[in-house]
Amino acid sequence: MSASAAQLKLAAMPEHDAAPDLNELLVRVGRGDENAFAEVYDALGSAVFGLARRVIRDPARAEEVAQEVFIQVWQSAARFDPARGNAKSWCLTLAHRRAVDAVRHDQAATNRENKYDWSSGPDFDEVEETVTITLEHEQVKRCLDGLTELQREAVNLAYYQGYTYAEVAAALDANTATIKTRMRDGIVRLRDCMGVTA
């Protein structure tokens, strides 16, 4: 077979093996054709991701944007007009806009975080602990007010000032046995008041 005969044979072959026109596919997507959407995705998926990746530094974020673009293509393909442009340009324009929006959104979030500098504030656990300690101190003060004067002074000197029994006895002008008894009774009353079991 000569070269010219081979060319004639190729020219006579039907073009069913040729890739379908993207404009036609996108019009079909606009009518809800899922198979056409799959073909558009196969044809443009890499280009859309590549464009998103060039605009967005984070590959995972670029992948999210590419997925959002194809959701938008599916939802808005009915608005595509092949007389005003081609399908590839239309899809890549959507991708570029979506990627730029993502960069702006991410930058705005970073700016807000930096402006309020959340990291410099105390952790939630620190705040909770501070509140808990404050409440416990208030409860201890209320319970101390319920003790007799000798019990309150003895507990205060021993536990808050670090005095020994003998030093407490000397400070309160009482014998050591009396101080030990008053402190023991005072501690029992404090435990009861605070709901602590021995």
TrEMBL record:
This is Sigma-70 family RNA polymerase sigma factor. Transmembrane segments: none annotated. The keyword Transcription regulation applies. Residues 41-107 form the RNA polymerase sigma-70 region domain. GO terms for molecular function: DNA binding; sigma factor activity. Residues 138-187 form the RNA polymerase sigma factor 70 region 4 type domain. It comes from Aeromicrobium fastidiosum. GO terms for biological process: DNA-templated transcription initiation.
